Amino acid sequence: MEEEEEINRTVNSEFFLLGFQNGQRSTILLVCLLLVVYCGTICGNLLIITLVSTSRNLHSPMYFFVSQLSISDIMLTTDIVPNMFHILLNNGGSITVNGCITQYYFFCAAEAFECFILTVMSYDRYVAICNPLHYTTTMTSDRCVVLAAICWVFGFSITLMYCITISMMTFCGPNIIDHFFCDLIPLLERACSSTYAIELEVFIMCFPILFIPLTVIIVSYINIIVTILQFQSNICRQKAFSTCSSHLTVVSIFYFTLLSVYLFPKGEETLKFSKLLSLLYTVFTPLINPIIYSLRNKDIKKSLREKINKCVTYLNDIIFSR
User: Fold this and answer.
1) How many other C-beta atoms can be found within 10 angstroms of the C-beta atom of residue 204?
2) What's residue 191's pLDDT?
3) CA distance 117 to 125
């Protein structure tokens, strides 16, 4: 009995992440799938960033914010996936406590930034549709840069507050975490010091990070829909809806998976489902975002065709000049 108490009091210096405990064949298939998804995510988001920065017809507030979202997606998936490969290939993997908290910090910063930038993008669509005459004076290039910078600063600074609190906690007892990355709930379950302060901080921070941005998005789209329905022309309605559909799809996927993971009750089966949802919004959503914005957007497809034609022309000139 005393030995068990001594073990439970031992301060952990590292955690062991279980990942997905599957058979060898299932693990190989999952690793191959994740490798394809990861490469597709990096290439897709880098393509959007490159197109937005080099194509004149994409030099607008909406596409600037899309490129910022792509940067966030690259940061999020790079924070999670490489370590997940190590965990899957080794049937689990160790990570230091400081490394675990660092991974959680960048994960939270990317998620918080996405909440803020999606809110700014909804405001951009609101001004473009509800106040089109004031759009160019309201959403200037300088103002867009400032709004994006504020989103980045808020994303990294707000999450830093409670990550510092987590770093001052001690963890003891079983160091096994049944997850593929360091998330808040598994960390708190392994804390042997009081978790009241961090739980209070997270509860308070949910308002500026999650609920206020979600409220702004909902109010913006209510006004957008009301304004669109007042249009006399069906063509104008369809064009207005098409400019918002991509952003609204991304918002729906992001908030559905995020709220499903952290607000649903936690049972044994629910935890397994939450792990799958976590895989969706940490790995697959960063791939889905560029697909949605590229396949459903005529301007991006036009810019991509122009770049491809320029590359083909350049290669032909080099080949035939020889």
Assistant:
1) 12
2) 85
3) 12
Q: Is the pLDDT of residue 7 over 50?
A: no
Cα–Cα distance measured from residue 283 to residue 281, given in angstroms and rounded to the nearest whole number: 6
Give the other-Cβ count within 10 Å of 205's Cβ: 16
Other CB atoms closer than 10 Å to residue 9's CB: what's the count?
Answer: 11
The residues near 303 (Cβ < 8 Å, ≥ 6 apart) are 51, 55, 57, 58
Mean of all residue pLDDT scores within the chain: 85
**Predicted pLDDT of residue 39:** 94
Could you tell me the CA-to-CA distances from 24 to 20, 28, 82, 191, 203 in Å, in that order? 11, 6, 19, 33, 40
List beta partners, residue 71.
Answer: none
> What is the structure's pLDDT at 203?
85
E-strand spans in the chain?
14-17, 93-96, 176-177
Return the closest-CA partner of residue 94 out of 178, 6, 17.
17
CA angle 215, 217, 222 (to 5 degrees): 95
Is it the case that residue 295 has pLDDT exceeding 80?
no
Place of tokens 């940067």: 71
Three-state DSSP at 183 gives coil
**Closest CA relative to residue 121, chosen from 100, 141, 139:** 139
Q: Which residue has the higher pLDDT, 49 or 256?
A: 49
Angle between helices 212-229 and 234-263 (to 10 degrees): 160
Q: Give 10's DSSP letter.
A: S
| Side chain identity, residue 15 | F
Gyration radius from the chain CA atoms: 23
Task: Give CA 271 to chain center in angstroms.
Answer: 21
Tell the burial category of 201 from Cβ atoms under 10 Å away from its Cβ (0-12, 13-18, 19+).
Answer: middle
